[in-house]
Amino acid sequence: MMEDGSIPAENGTDRDGSALIFLGTGCSSAVPNAMCLIQKSDSPCHVCSQSLSIPPERNPNYRGNTSLLIDYCSSDGNHNYIQIDVGKTFREQVLRWFTLHNIPQVDSIILTHEHADAVLGLDDIRSVQPFSPTNDIDPTPIFVSQYAMDSLAVKFPYLVQKKLKEGQEVRRVAQLDWRVIEEDCEKPFVASGLLFTPLPVMHGEDYVCLGFLFGEKSRVAYISDVSRFLPSTEYVISKSGGGQLDLLILDTLYKTGSHNTHLCFPQTLETIKRLGPKRALLIGMTHEFDHHKDNEFLEEWSKREGISVKLAHDGLRVPIDL
Ligand SMILES: [Zn+2]
Ligand SMILES: [Zn+2]
């Protein structure tokens, strides 16, 4: 990103090699926070007010629901596009970032869990699929846990239903090929040619969410919703255990304090020190985070601790060898 916060135009034209594209880096309610804009205040929220004067493309404090697009370039030079999570802001993210980064399609989908900010855009998957009024297209593989699958069958029965009922009209809906994955670090799976290891983590003490480890040449872990690490998962992604990560993408909700279902900034930084990756990018932030200001703090922290840590931002493209 440029000093003024804009994203260089050539970002979208470099198509050699693999890259990670951060489609969203915000919390469930996204940033700006609507209340900060609709309620008058003597001391308006600086971060949210920016969205009224700076277009999202140049505003790193404008954050959609957490989502990552992996542009995977295999050894034959073919690009496959793997989308992690399809949240409430999916359509907006497609319009904004698929266009900027020349993403022509989604080849497979992986879901971390079935909360609204991870799945409520699934209806709009049809907008990135070929048009067929009779739904006669190749379905997009979608990888989910059994728990998420059961919940999605209730939320979106028409996306799960295989055959039309007697007398039911055909209506155009997203075509998905559901594949159930295990909540187990020992049970990897392949999506669009890339191997993924599920990383079960606690997202509140009553709920298991999945992160994912992927990449052969670079080890990348993506963990968007976590309040506590299970020892078996922590081992797989820690420098002292399964091996040092080249890049850790990690949840951080609030600047201070703690939260029952997410890590907040102090715990996120502690976790990074414990896991010891080469670098880390943070996602899932509320409006408490001010991109430039907090990245200045993190620059100092990174020097002191010897691990590069930054806040990611929507639209960020990170070239990486996978
Ligand atoms: Zn605000
Ligand atoms: Zn969640």
From TrEMBL:
Protein name per the record: Metallo-beta-lactamase domain-containing protein
Q: Kindly give the Pfam families that the UniProt entry links to this protein.
A: Lactamase_B_2 (PF12706)
Q: Which organism is it from?
A: Brassica rapa subsp. trilocularis
Its domain of life? Answer: Eukaryota
Q: Where is the Metallo-beta-lactamase domain?
A: 82-284
Taxonomic lineage of the native organism: Eukaryota, Viridiplantae, Streptophyta, Embryophyta, Tracheophyta
